[in-house]
Structure formats: structure tokens, C-alpha cells
Amino acid sequence: MTTVDAFSTDPADAVPHTPAAAAAGRLNGTPPRTPGADLPEHPDALWKNPEPKKAYDVVIVGGGGHGLATAHYLVKNHGITNVAVLEKGWLAGGNMARNTTLIRSNYLWDESAAIYEHSLKLWEGLEEDLGYPILFSQRGVLNLAHTLQDVRDSVRRVEANVLNGVDAEWIEPDEVRKICPIVNTSSDIRYPVLGATYQPRAGIAKHDYVGWGFARRIDEAGVDIIQNCEVTGFVRDGNRVTGVRTTRGDIACGTVALAAAGSTSVLTDMLGLRVPIQSHPLQALVSELLEPVHPTIVMSNAVHVYVSQAHKGELVMGAGVDAYNGYGQRGAFHIIERQMAAAVELFPVFARAHLLRTWGGIVDTTPDASPIVGRTPYDNVFLNCGWGTGGFKATPGLGWVFADTIANDEPHPYAAPFSLDRFVTGRLVDEHGAAAVAH
Amino acid sequence: MQMIKCPWCGPREEVEYHYGGQAHVAYPAEPAALSDEEWAHYLFFRDNTRGLFAERWVHTAGCRRWFNAVRDTVTYRFHATYRPDEPRPVTA
Ligand SMILES: Cc1cc2nc3c(=O)[nH]c(=O)nc-3n(C[C@H](O)[C@H](O)[C@H](O)COP(=O)(O)OP(=O)(O)OC[C@H]3O[C@@H](n4cnc5c(N)ncnc54)[C@H](O)[C@@H]3O)c2cc1C
Ligand SMILES: [Zn+2]
């Protein structure tokens, strides 16, 4: 599928979005165009809404990106199609609908680089694989350094990335300015930009289209996507779970795969299984639609904000979690206020932009800022959680690796380091540093 | 912004406080006797309750003292705050 060519992200091709520009367009004969008019049309229906069957070989709990991608690779790589994806709300309406879509693989440790880079490679072919436009735009990411310690950590991370075959370089402030002219690189600010790491292959994608693309593919292959179906309990027989209790009746299962992100603990509590997860609100926001001004993604750990510009023209911004545990899918406004202060510090040009909308999701954080993927003490229950603030980028990679783990009843090599028992052995994969404003 | 009632100072704005996670997690009575599994649970595993949760807060920009709160993790509403030496109050 090549429809994405129609949505060039080159600022030179872009249609101006301000009323004044639209008026100017009218004056010189170009018809005014609505923001988003260049986005593709969707078919009327992308998947069916079947009644749940009595039993499935694999029941996936959670119809976010991870659950859908796992079903896709169960079908595609392992020929397993007697699969249900159970979703308590509407399809891909959790964090999948709320994230800021940053995709990158420049993580510090070998274990992380392996799984995130695997995912990034899959992103590069995903539109073709799904036969659906996902607007994957590899516009690069700059992770800014503002202190000497930042510089040292960043250079170390770049060296580690290069050894792992991840495209990464250290660049000086004048190069930062060339890649993103609107970043304030003057020395006359509280936290001057001392340089940045740059990953050119990083990018953004349209999260809804990604979810819908996976859903359409698995629906075609015979997977049942069952919405408004909340798992409320498990039927246990010794070390096995033989079925799930849901708001739409009991469903028997050969294997259960948990992919419930921020709600994981609610499910594992029902299984009497403790997981080292804390659920937090994570907020994001968009500005009104603006002309293309921001060609890349900029993240700053120290000043604490990250920004990209969506295809329609909104500036998309976020930062870290709200400090307290929360399941409310919203957060406090003072968190937003701080992000805005940081954004205006780094990008003085944003000072007059209006905030259009803020929202929140529930993210599942772990003690080492790395996910938990693999086995549980139950023979036929597999766990995927703990992606916290950064699991959108892992969607295809995790789906591939989790499907493989389920199909072979054996952790995929990329999943193995992320087992639940690392918290007992002490082999943590500490990505707090490279998690880079945590996305 | 939420007002949080410090048991010593009274109601103050949320930004004056920092969060400290689950309350009433006691230091192991016999640390040397713990298995690796038990240490892991003491260090890394905390309840992640959906609903009323007893948790620690510190009044950083005020008296700088720690205290406990019972808060609903869905509505974020505080149901009670109390001193660390007091038992968890019964809340509705
Ligand atoms: C504001 C924000 C910004 C983010 N930005 C980024 C970013 O820039 N880059 C990045 O890589 N990641 C980002 N993330 C993180 C990313 O969104 C998540 O890590 C990822 O979406 C988690 O996987 P998922 O898509 O499967 O989760 P979800 O979409 O949350 O899917 C889990 C699903 O499980 C369902 N569920 C829960 N309990 C039950 C039950 N009992 N029965 C049935 N169904 C159930 C939920 O309704 C939900 O739909 C961000 C998250 C947020 C909130
Ligand atoms: Zn006080």
C-alpha cells in the first residue's frame, strides 16, 4: 500500500492551516482546504462484532495495540486462528487511543535495544504487512542534553546504540539548530542545549490507524474481536486456567494471554499473582492546528517535555506521569502547566499557541522501567505488561515476540530477559536513564 | 488543584506534597532470614489497588513530615489523612 505518499510530511508540501493562509489561498485561486483533508478515507466497517464462542485455543485479554498485534502474529507466524481478543471497552480505546506515538529504539541496554530495534524494523514494513495506511513517518528524534551529566549519559547511550546496530549519533548545538530550527539553542536560557542524541529512523505513526489495521487483518483471518467484554474472573484447575469469566458469559480457553496494560494488577489480583506494577495517570495534550513548523521529534529529560507535530498540524506534547497511583484516565492540571512552561522555554515560538485538549491514560510502571513479558506460575497463562509510558513503539515487536512465546510455550529470546523472575534474581534491565522523558 | 489535609498543618495545595507509595509496609522483622523471593517482594512488589488505597505522603514544602492517607485511586478523592503512628481509619 503506498497511499502514504499522499501525506508528505515535508513542510514545503504542506497546506497552510491558519484562517489567514486559507484566505490567501482563496485570493490566489487555490481552494481552501480543511486540516486532515489529506488523510485517507476508511471503509465503513473494518471488523465484525461476533458473539463469543464457547471456547478458544487462545484468549487474549485486552484489545489494545499489544493484544491485537499478538493475535496478528499468532495468525501470521504460527497459523493459530482460533483466537479471541476480549476488550472491556471499545477496541483500542485505552492507552492505544491516548498515546503520543513516539517510535524509537535508542535504549541503553542490549536487552532493550534488541526488542525495540526488532519492533522498529517491523514498523518499517508494517503498512505493507497490514495493507492499511498507518502514516508511519520517520522524521527522527532529538534527545536534548542540558547538563554535563546529560552529555556524558547521552554519549554513552549513543556508543551503546551503535554497538547494537541502532542508528544513533551525538550532535552539537549547531546541528540541532539545522535539524530543528525552532529549538532555542541560545546560551542565554536556564538550561542551555549542550547537544543531543539523534536517531534519524525514529518517528511517529497514526495510532488509531495502527489499531484498526491490525484489527481488520485479524478479523479477516478469523480471530474474534469481542468488545464490551470485561474479564471479571478466572476458572482455575490446579496450575491451569481453564476459562475466563466475562460480562458476556464464561469462555473456555487453552491458553490465556494478558495484555491489559494499566489494568493488569486488577487481573493478576484475581489470579492471586503479585506483579511489581504501579498504575499511574499519564497525560498528554495537543495545541490547535498550526502550519508545519516542527520537522522532527524533540525530547528533553531535564527541561521535561517532548514535542512532535501531528499530520494534521497539532503540536503533540507530553512529559512524565502524575506522581500518585491512579486508575482514573485523567490527571492534575499543574502537571500540564509545568509541561507548557518547559515547552515555551525550549520553543519560544509556541508562546502564543493555544492548548486545545488534554487527556490521560493509565500506564503500568515497573521498578526498572522495563516491561514484563513471559511466563507466570500458571502453566497456560502468559503475561505482557509493564510497558509503562513507552509501549506504543513496541506494538509490532511485542506482538511478534509474545505470539512466539505463547505458540512455543517458551520465552522468545527477546522476551527472556524481561521475565517476572528478574525481580527475584536481581537481573533488572534499568532503563530509567534511556527512557528519555519516559517514552 | 486538590487540597490535601496535612495532619499537622491542615489543608494545603497538592503541589506542596510528594507521594510515597503504599503505606504500612513494615521493615522485615528478621531481614537475614528472608529468602530471595521474600526480599524481592519487600523491595519491588507493592499493592496496586483500584479503589481505596492507604498510601504515604510527605509535606515537602511545609512541615516536611510524613503521614498516611486513604485515597480512592479511581476518583483521586482523599477519604482520610492520619499520622504514621495511627492505624488506618475506617473509611467508606
Ligand atoms: C498519554 C500517553 C502517552 C504515551 N506516549 C507514548 C509514546 O509516545 N510512545 C510509546 O511508545 N508509548 C507511549 N505511551 C504508552 C503506550 O500507550 C502503552 O505502553 C501501550 O499502548 C500499552 O499497550 P496497549 O496498546 O495494548 O494498551 P491499551 O491500549 O491500554 O490496551 C489494554 C486494553 O486492555 C483492556 N482491559 C483492561 N482490563 C480488562 C479486562 N478485565 N477485560 C477486558 N479488557 C480489559 C483495556 O480496556 C484496554 O483497551 C503513552 C501512553 C499514554 C497514556
Ligand atoms: Zn505539614
TrEMBL record, chain A:
Reaction(s) catalysed by this chain's protein: sarcosine + (6S)-5,6,7,8-tetrahydrofolate + O2 = (6R)-5,10-methylene-5,6,7,8-tetrahydrofolate + glycine + H2O2; sarcosine + O2 + H2O = formaldehyde + glycine + H2O2
Known cofactor(s): FAD; FMN
Signal peptide limits: none
Sorted UniProt keywords: Cytoplasm, FAD, Flavoprotein, FMN, Nucleotide-binding, Oxidoreductase
Enzyme Commission no: 1.5.3.24
InterPro entries recorded: FAD-dep_OxRdtase, FAD/NAD-bd_sf, Rhodanese-like_dom, SoxB
Keyword Cytoplasm found: yes
Keyword Repeat: no
Domain Rhodanese: 58-102
Low complexity: compositionally biased ranges: 9-24
UniProt record, GO biological process: tetrahydrofolate metabolic process
Record region (Disordered): 1-44
Cellular localisation: Cytoplasm
Superkingdom of source: Bacteria
Any one GO molecular-function label of the UniProt entry: sarcosine oxidase activity
Enzyme superclass (EC): oxidoreductase
Major localization class: cytoplasm
A single GO cellular-component term on record: cytoplasm
Similarity field: Belongs to the SoxB family.
Protein name per its UniProtKB record: Sarcosine oxidase subunit beta
Organism: Quadrisphaera granulorum
From TrEMBL, chain B:
Stated name of the protein: Sarcosine oxidase subunit delta
GO molecular function: sarcosine oxidase activity
Protein species of origin: Quadrisphaera granulorum
GO BP term (any one): tetrahydrofolate metabolic process
Cross-referenced Pfam families: SoxD (PF04267)
InterPro entries (UniProt xref): SoxD (IPR006279), SoxD_sf (IPR038561)
Superkingdom per UniProt: Bacteria
